[in-house]
Design goal:
Blueprint: E1 3-8, H1 19-38, E2 42-49, H2 54-62, H3 67-84, E3 91-94, H4 98-113, E4 117-127, E5 132-133, E6 139-142, E7 151-152, E8 169-173, E9 181-190, H5 196-204, H6 211-223, E10 228-229, E11 231-233, E12 247-249, H7 251-254, H8 257-269, H9 277-280, E13 286-292, H10 296-308, E14 322-323, E15 326-328, H11 343-349, H12 352-361, E16 369-371, H13 373-402, H14 415-436, H15 440-461, H16 463-469, H17 471-492, H18 497-506, H19 517-520, H20 543-558, H21 611-615, E17 619-629, E18 637-642, E19 647-652, H22 660-663, E20 667-671, E21 677-679, E22 682-684, E23 687-688, E24 690-691, E25 698-699
Parallel strand pairs: 1-2, 1-13, 2-3, 13-14, 15-16
Antiparallel strand pairs: 4-5, 4-9, 6-7, 6-8, 9-10, 11-12, 17-18, 17-20, 18-19, 20-23, 21-22, 24-25
Helix pairs in contact: 2-3, 4-8, 5-6, 6-10, 12-13, 13-15, 13-17, 14-15, 14-17, 15-17, 16-17, 17-18
One zinc ion binds near residues 127, 173 and 178.
Length: about 725
Amino acid sequence: MTKILVTSALPYANGPIHFGHIAGAYLPADVFVRHHRMLGDDVVYICGTDEHGVAITIGAEQQGTTPAEHVAKYRVIIKDLFDKLHIEFDNFSRTTLPLHHDLARRFFEELKSNGHLFEQTEEQYFCDTCNRFLADRYLTGSCPHCGHPGARGDECTGCGKWLESVELTSPACKLCGGTPAKRSTKHWYFRLDAFSDKLRDWLQGQSDWKEHVRGYVLSMLDNGLKARPISRDLHWGVPVPGEAEGKVLYVWFDAPIGYISSTMEWAEKQGKPERWRDYWQDPACRIYHFIGKDNIPFHCAFWPAMLMGQSTPYTLPCNVPANEWLTLEGRQFSKSDGWYIDLTSFFERYSADSIRYCLAANAPESSDTEFSWKDFQLRNNSELANIYGNLVNRVLRFVVTHFDGRIPEAASLGPRDREVLAQVRELFEQTGRHYSAFELRRAAFAVMELGRVGNRYVDELAPWDTVKNDPPTCATTLNVSATILLYLACASWPLIPSAASKLLGFLGLGGEAWEGMHHRVHELQLAGRTLGPTEILFHKIEDDQIAMEIEALHLRRDALPLPAPTPSQTSSNAESPMEPTPVVQPPLPAQEASPPTSESLFPPLKEPISYEDFARLDLRAATVIAAERVPKTDRLLHLEVELGLERRHVVAGVAGTYAPEDLLGKRVILLANLEPRKLRGVVSHGMLLAAGEGDRIRLLTPDGEVANGTMVK
Ligand SMILES: [Zn+2]
Ligand SMILES: [Zn+2]
């Protein structure tokens, strides 16, 4: 049995989290964990709140409360969102536990006794009025690089540069507004630079990592690592061993140790307090850290180095599947900018499965992606409801009406039955491979493909006819259809656990455990089972509902003054130990750039044509069902599109804008009667409509639900 430990980035208990965080570090991990539970692996899923740091003490002071009350409040809000989304941790701990403090101090002491720490005296600003050192964000002033007046002690919000607080000009205390003076103080540093070679050797062995993750860290190593301060003058945090009160471990140092302390807490709750060692001290255990891309330097360099520097032997992570950003309607989620989704009302209207599926189908795996309300509606209505829900509904209703609610025996399987069963099993295995490889988008697509295959089978076998003239065939069709539903449930459980569990119950298998189901599914007998009570799995979302959501989003933002552009997305831990990473894209400007005014920027209009000329074009709605790069080109993708009446292979010059996986499931418009043409050895039968060129090309897509094959006029 494979032993697996999965962690998600510890959310920072300084505010609520949003769907952007969920899509990056939590949903992908939860899906991965569920898949391994289905495989029967020994998997433990660990998380907890990160409750230390300057941002928290400031947040507490601003809200007139104590840090302890502040983190307790947000911990509840954060955990509540995880519960609503069915993100199921085995343990959700917190870094303020004594258990965690003890372990963090032990980490410090082992690094120290192994010679990996040194002390250095440095100047820091001290406020006499407040009688304290002004760490990081307690200090504000002008940026030495760009002159921005609102720079913080750790980062300039104008130009995004990482700052040392002593670099600020005209510094002011954030608490009292007074002018601080420099005073010397001693801090502990971690010799990160001494681990460069070991880190490089270790990374070079990780050939199965996501390329953007490994490449980023290797380039960090090429640029040279520096020693990093690991202590702070603060009263909230893990006290530094051997130091007077008022010196704590820097939050970036103590937070990841929370993965281990949370596992220890889990083991204690199991009544086997030593069991954490089975995961953290067994080299055969596979440890996965799921994070957002802002946490890459930390989890792929600092944290492994901290582990390498211990005397206690710890297992290093085997993969760090970091994700890119998910934006909301093209902008970063931001509560302070009014650009967010109200999650309380969200869960009053929509289900966890709908949002899980939508986030998975759009997961920011290799590039930034966006959540849009229209897409959410489309995924829910035309995929979950029309394909998945429809198949479930039509098959079960038929069994109730014509077989007294009992799944019939298969008389004898015909070639079409055998074919569909083979297809369905292959799609089920395919989803498993995608889950193992952190490919949520492909997995979501394969699940829906399984639903499509099922619907086509039912259409073709037409049991409503055979029930009258060929009852044995009808019984076989329904038995096979029920088997398809069983595989659909199993393939989709990691993504949409609630619907999948209900579906299992509908099939009379409500008592079955999901653990090990990946293997057991092939032996489960359906014939003779009485269906459980059924219900509608997915409710359609109406257009006016979505229009209201979009309006609410804009109203919230318009109610606020125009925000100043910020240089980087708020990370889950607001106190990043590193320079803002260069992979972070600059945010969109607050307003769209005005369109070019000069007509000469556009090609001249073409000659007028008659309607008859236009009517000769056979334009159809279609859906991309497979996509890959055309080898040795950087512009061309080889696509397979579902046209309703048939499938087509098309070569499209859109690789400048789209990665192949971006296009899976995308609705497009195909010029279907263009003569076939051979491009780079592939026969392209039709052409996709698109606007723009090169890396600015954009495919045209129907604004709402349109069946494949529908004429475009
Ligand atoms: Zn600046
Ligand atoms: Zn002050």
